[in-house]
Structure formats: C-alpha cells, structure tokens
Amino acid sequence: MKRRHFITSAGLLASTGTTAKAAAKKPLLHHVFFWLNNPASEADKQQLIKGLKALKGIPTIKEIHIGTLASTEKRDVVDTSWDVSELMFFDDEAGQKVYQDHPIHVDFVKNYAHLWKKVIVYDAIDA
Questions:
Q1: Arithmetic mean of pLDDT, 59-74
Q2: Taking the domains of the chain in order of start, what are their residue ranges?
Q3: How high is the pLDDT of residue 24?
C-alpha cells in the first residue's frame, strides 16, 4: 500500500469514528411496549400517554414517539397484543443511562406502573 493511500485511509477511519470509543457513541433506540391492566379503558390509556409525554423533559432524549396500535393489515408477523408504545432516540448508551436514572423517569414508573401488567423493552444501537 502506498504511503499516501495509507495516510488517507487512516485519516478517513479516524474521522468516521471506527475506534472502540466511537463505537460506544452510536445512537441508541429505546422501544418500549406496554400492555395495560385494563386495555378497554380509554382513560387508563390516556393517563399512560400523558405520563409518557412528561418524559420529554429529560434532556438526553433526542426524540420521542408515543404510539397506539395502527389498523394495518393483519399478518402472522405483526404483534397486535400491546396497547401503547414509546420509541426514544438517544445520542448514545450514556444518554439512555441518564434517562433511566433521571427523577422524571423514576417518578413516571412510580406514578404509572399501576396501569400496566406487562412491559417489554427493545434497545438497539444504530447499525
């Protein structure tokens, strides 16, 4: 490999963040699904949504999307058993850790956990 090509490649690798430290800085997606104790209760659903919206006050959350079931085509691969979901975007795993320990999140769990019977979390880093 010619010296110039090596230097250019090394600089490109360094600038694109391929080091171990940079790998820890990948964006993190935090997707949570809630099953309500009373799925027929619109009041309970709206109360949970209100609590989820309050999480927007946590500064490490870059984006938050709160959803309910879409009326899309029923297929074997689509899970329609949940009631409410939230999808959050963080800059990295450290930001998600701040969220987990933040007083707003701690209060959310304390004040709204009575509404759900099951929660499943899917955390993923940006590929």
A1: 95
A2: 23-125
A3: 61
